[in-house]
Specification:
Pfam families: LigB (PF02900). The protein is of the alpha/beta class. The protein has helices at about 25-35, 90-100, 115-125, 145-155, 185-200, 205-210, 210-215, 215-220, 230-235; strands at about 10-15, 45-55, 55-60, 105-110, 130-140, 160-165, 245, 250, 255, 260. Strands 5-2-6-1-10-7 form a 6-stranded mixed beta sheet, sandwiched between helices. Strands 3-4 form a two-stranded parallel ribbon. Helix 2 (about 90-100) links the parallel strand 3 (about 55-60) and strand 4.
């Protein structure tokens, strides 16, 4: 795994269940390796499925709180803090970049980091030494709209801002088994392999229509919010980027932790 020091990467990281916060597994280990190669990024600009709003919002708090937006998990998880700073300066840059491309966004001085953001970041940058700015997903966004959002913010990579989409490559919680297992539902691999192959082929039109074209597309995502950050990360890529798979791990037999890097 390598990174180009001249341009910050675009990443898609599957954050999985909140238990990922203290169960690193293969993905946590690989994120730790990748994080050591990132150098001194100016900021991390992140989109998570756990912040959906009416219209676009951009977090601007200089010291965003660690939000424990999950219920019924071990109490140890609620004590975890990820004390990264925010950056009002970069937040304004994000808003201005969106505005220059016809997208209105407001600054949110109160928003912290939901678990979709801080859980993977605690492995990627355990020292919490890079400012984090969160961008919301407008309610009822489509893959095309998430893609366009990523395209609009792709220029930030040239200014040293890492672009991060964090979600889950499969996310059918009706099939959640409650404990980890080595018995993976076959459809999980079939769907994940289809996504990876389309990315490698540059077949982005098929990706945008995954619900009709991918095997088990609607089973893998009964609702779309956890896959939309993948399209955000893809939109921020360029043809010059090298695509790398960070991990193909599967948890609980149905939750693909597949994660990708473009650099």
């Amino acid at each position: 795994m390598s990174t180009n020091p001249d341009t910050a990467p675009s990443l898609f990281i599957s954050h999985g269940a909140p238990t990922f916060a203290d169960q690193p597994g293969e993905l946590g280990y690989r994120l730790g390796q990748l994080g050591q190669m990132l150098g001194s990024a100016r900021a991390i600009v992140a989109v998570s499925p756990h912040w959906e709003t009416n219209g676009l919002r951009v977090s601007s708090h200089p010291s965003p709180e660690t939000i424990h937006d999950f219920y019924g998990f071990p109490k140890e998880l609620y004590a975890i803090q990820y004390p990264a700073h925010g950056s009002p300066e970069v937040a304004k840059l994000v808003v201005d970049t969106l505005a220059s491309n016809g997208l209105d966004a407001g600054l949110d001085p109160d928003r912290g980091m939901d678990h979709g953001v801080w859980v993977p970041l605690r492995y990627l940058r355990p020292l919490a030494d890079i400012p984090v700015i969160c961008v919301s997903l407008p309610i009822n966004s489509t893959p095309d709209q998430a893609w366009h959002l990523g395209q609009t913010l792709a220029v930030l990579r040239q200014y040293g801002c890492l672009v991060l989409g964090t979600g889950s490559l499969t996310h059918n919680l009706a099939e959640f088994r409650g404990s980890n297992t080595d018995q993976v539902s076959p459809y999980v691999h079939e769907f994940a392999n289809w996504i990876e192959d389309r990315i490698k082929d540059g077949d982005y039109d098929s990706l945008l229509h995954y619900r009709e074209l991918a095997p088990h597309g609607q089973r893998a995502h009964p609702t779309e919010e956890h896959l939309l950050p993948l399209f955000f990360a893809l939109g921020a890529t360029s043809k010059a980027d090298r695509f790398e798979v960070i991990s193909r791990e599967v948890r609980y037999g149905m939750l693909s932790m597949a994660s990708y890097c473009w650099q």
